[in-house]
C-alpha cells in the first residue's frame, strides 16, 4: 500500500490552486502516462520511496494523455519543457526543481526544496 495521496489534476482551476498553495508550501506535481512503461515504473518507485519520505506523501498527478492540453499549459505557465514522466517542485508560483524519466525519484529532490 502506498503512502502517497495522489491528487488528480483535471482542470485549469486545479493548476491555479496549486500555484496559489505554493505560496505557503512547496507543491509536487507528477506528470504521468499510463501507456508509458517508464512512467509506470517511475510511479511505482515513487510509491515505494514515499514510505521513507513522509514529507512527500501529497503529490498532484497529471495524466498527460487525458489532460494533454492542461499539461502543455502548465509547461508554458511555469516555463519548463513538457516531459513524461516528470516531477516538478513548485514554490511561490515558480518551478524550482524538475527532472524526468528515470531521474524521477523523491531521493533526487534537493533538500532545500523541502518545507
From TrEMBL:
This is Bacillithiol system redox-active protein YtxJ. It comes from the Bacteria. InterPro entries: BrxC. Gene3D superfamilies: Glutaredoxin (3.40.30.10). It holds the Pfam family BrxC. The gene is ytxJ.
Amino acid at each position: 500500500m502506498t503512502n502517497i495521496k495522489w491528487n488528480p489534476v483535471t482542470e485549469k482551476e486545479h493548476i491555479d490552486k496549486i500555484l496559489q498553495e505554493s505560496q505557503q508550501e512547496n507543491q509536487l506535481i507528477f506528470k504521468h502516462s499510463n501507456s508509458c512503461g517508464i512512467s509506470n515504473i517511475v510511479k511505482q518507485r515513487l510509491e515505494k520511496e514515499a514510505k521513507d519520505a513522509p514529507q512527500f506523501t501529497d503529490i498532484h498527478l497529471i495524466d498527460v494523455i487525458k489532460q494533454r492540453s492542461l499539461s502543455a499549459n502548465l509547461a508554458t505557465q511555469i516555463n519548463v519543457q513538457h516531459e513524461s514522466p516528470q516531477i516538478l517542485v513548485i514554490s511561490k508560483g515558480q518551478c524550482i526543481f524538475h527532472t524526468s524519466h528515470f531521474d524521477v525519484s523523491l531521493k533526487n529532490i534537493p533538500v532545500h526544496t523541502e518545507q
